[in-house]
Amino acid sequence: MFRNPEIDATTDYLTYLSSEGDVFHAWWKGNFREKIPAAGTWADDAKGHGRMSAIAQIGDRLYACGQGGQIYRRQGQDDWQLLTDALLFDRTAYQKKKEGRPKTTDPAYLDWLRDYQKQAPRNISFNAIAGLSEDAIYLCGEEATRPILYYWDGTALHEQKVHLEEAALTNIWIEHADSIWVCGREGVLLHGSFARGFTPVNLREQLNLFHMITPYRGQLVMASSVRPGGLFELDPATSELSRFSPSMPKLRGDYIFYACAIGDVLWVVGQKDILCFDGREWERIENPDLP
User: Which long-range contacts (CB under 8 A, 24 or more apart) does 157-166 make?
Assistant: First the structure.
């Protein structure tokens, strides 16, 4: 949802981001489309940084992030600019490093590989972006198999220490300035802030791929697609994790990947399911576009 002060300071409207950097504004007086220059993989102006992943309003502006360390800020209509190129994937340097690569049967291959891994340009994939203000923004994602969490203070990026060797961070929920929640793969949940640092929350041994985190009825609700999949809720006071109660209706698809609370209603979206819970019972929303 975006409240665009340029055209309508009183009404929010839906904004969609494609993986190629197309930004669709579903304004009720007239839809329009923008393109983030250089973003994407197959777009004519793509620079090889990769796909876009997430879009959010922070302050009065839209921000978007994606693969290859891409972070963009919307300055105005049809005006998207890199927030910073500090983490931008350098494809030219990447290709140059691969030149002269020996065959795997060559005795020099292992030495080349060690040198390449030490000096290869960073390639960070951001999965989510959220902020308290334009000078207090969090981004999370992954670098190969390593979890990545950054903080933007309005001037520079600061990498946050994540006490985990492997995982992918997928979503951020900001409770307040000193309480930021970050979920991810391998059953990961982090809690903390830029000021006090982040620590993993012990959720018992399980390897859920958590896609979303949202507050509902005093609990934190998380959608997981695998290991095991389903809808979970966490008591933030005790860190006790359990299946959401009452349980969802039987899914028509294989998994869910989205959960978000709007007022008193919890919405859940999956491969072939749209469900809502009003605090008393579940309702399935029939979608004629789903087989």
Answer: 157/84, 157/86, 157/87, 158/194, 160/194, 160/197, 160/198, 161/197, 161/198, 162/190, 162/198, 163/198, 163/199, 163/200, 164/188, 164/200
User: 32: how many CB neighbours lie within 10 A of its CB?
Assistant: 13
pLDDT in tens, 62-88: 999 999 999 999 999 999 999 999 999
pTM, rounded to two decimals: 0.91
Per-residue pLDDT, 179 = 97
d(CA 198, CA 215): 19
Q: What is the DSSP letter of 249?
A: P
Bridge partners for 283 per DSSP: 276
User: 248-252 — which CB contacts under 8 Å span 24+ positions?
Assistant: 248/275, 248/277, 248/282, 249/275, 249/282, 249/284, 252/290
Q: Starting from the edge strand earliest in sequence, which strands make up the sheet with 230-235, in order?
A: 210-216, 219-224, 230-235, 240-243
